[in-house]
């Protein structure tokens, strides 16, 4: 097991390095400069040259890459061109909002996905099963940004039930703790649903297919022959036997939620990592883009590793292999 973990960690480091290398060269080879300031003719050329020297952009690209790679290995990401602050502080300030949104979306995904998948598996071929399969396919096919825009249009403007954007209302700092928590929850509903519902649709289809296959196996038929109730057979035997693939899916979905919220955060002006990355891309803030890319790549490869470890924990056959 130790050798397996070392091999996987080495592969993860290699993958993160490849992602960062590709991102670095694509950013620097694309036309334009940080914030457009280096191409603005209204700014004196002496000032632009001073900025290039300050940001290290006057060096050859290979030298810039070597300097960036050495700093990244030391955990140093430099200063943001746009925020004029250390990149670590910019990312650390946005990370809690993304973790909160990802946690809420994960709750939506697994609560709705498990309940709907189990309900469909209990009556395969029924009208509810067919409707659920059609609805889940439709939801899974919709882009998250479009779903977020439609949610804002319907539930913030046509029926003003939830706030359309941001993490809190204006003046929420002066509210009592419970009112402030309720305000946060109201702002969280729409973005969490926009992220969680498409993933819940995919999970429901997966749970439904896994349970239908498991319910036809011999150990389930034997449990029914012993007189166990249908609910106990479903939850205590069939769902338990499906934990191995579900645990692997959990690790993969966690990594996706932490790294794939960019579009929804932009739509809802949510002050998280996705919004910071979008603004940094627009301003060509190279250090921030590289830092958030490294964070996202790390979460994806670690999520894949966690998924494999959860599968080995849930399935003794995988451990023996």
User: Which residues form runs of ≥5 with pLDDT under 50?
Assistant: none
Q: How large, in whole angstroms, is the Cα Rg? A: 24 Å
Please identify the structural class as seen in this structure: mainly alpha
Shape field: globular
Straight-line N-to-C gap: 10 Å
Largest sheet: none
Fraction of residues in helices?
Answer: over 70%
Helix/strand order, N-terminal first:
HHHHHHHHHHHHHH
- Helical region count? 14
The fraction of residues assigned to DSSP E strands is under 5%
Q: How many E strands?
A: 0
Can you offer a commentary on this structure?
- The protein is mostly helical and 321 residues long.
- The chain has 14 helices and no strands.
- The protein has helices at 2-29, 45-54, 61-73, 87-122, 127-141, 144-158, 177-215, 218-225, 230-241, 243-259, 262-267, 273-283, 286-314, 316-320.
- It is globular.
- The protein starts with a helix and ends with a helix.
Give me some keywords for this one.
0% strand; globular; 321 residues; 76% helix; mainly alpha; 14 helices
């Amino acid at each position: 097991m130790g050798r397996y973990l070392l091999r996987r960690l080495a592969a993860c480091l290699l993958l993160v390095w490849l992602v960062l290398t590709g991102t670095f060269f694509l950013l620097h080879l694309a036309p334009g400069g940080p914030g457009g300031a280096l191409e603005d003719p209204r700014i004196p050329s002496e000032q632009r040259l001073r900025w290039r020297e300050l940001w290290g952009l006057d060096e050859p690209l290979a030298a810039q890459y070597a300097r960036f790679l050495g700093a990244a290995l030391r955990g140093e990401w430099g200063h943001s061109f746009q925020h004029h602050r250390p990149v670590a502080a910019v990312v650390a300030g946005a990370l809690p909002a993304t973790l909160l949104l990802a946690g809420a979306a994960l709750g939506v995904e697994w609560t709705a996905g498990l309940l709907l998948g189990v309900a469909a598996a209990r009556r395969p071929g029924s009208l509810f099963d067919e409707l659920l399969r059609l609805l889940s396919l439709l939801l899974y096919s919709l882009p998250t940004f479009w779903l977020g825009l439609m949610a804002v249009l319907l539930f913030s403007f046509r029926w003003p039930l939830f706030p359309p954007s941001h993490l809190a209302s204006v003046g929420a700092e002066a509210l009592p703790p419970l009112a402030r928590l309720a305000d946060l929850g109201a702002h969280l509903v729409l973005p969490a649903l926009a992220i969680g519902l498409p993933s819940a649709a995919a999970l429901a289809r997966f749970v439904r297919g896994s349970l239908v296959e498991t319910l036809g196996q011999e150990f389930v038929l034997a449990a029914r022959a012993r007189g166990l109730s249908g609910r106990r057979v479903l939850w205590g035997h069939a769902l338990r036997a499906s934990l191995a693939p579900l645990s692997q899916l959990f690790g993969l979905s966690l990594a996706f939620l932490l790294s794939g919220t960019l579009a929804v955060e932009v739509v809802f002006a949510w002050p998280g990592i996705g919004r910071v990355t979008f603004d940094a891309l627009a301003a060509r803030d190279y250090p921030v883009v590289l830092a958030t890319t490294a964070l996202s790549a790390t979460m994806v490869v670690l999520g894949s590793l966690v998924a494999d470890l959860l599968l080995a924990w849930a399935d003794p056959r995988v451990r023996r292999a």
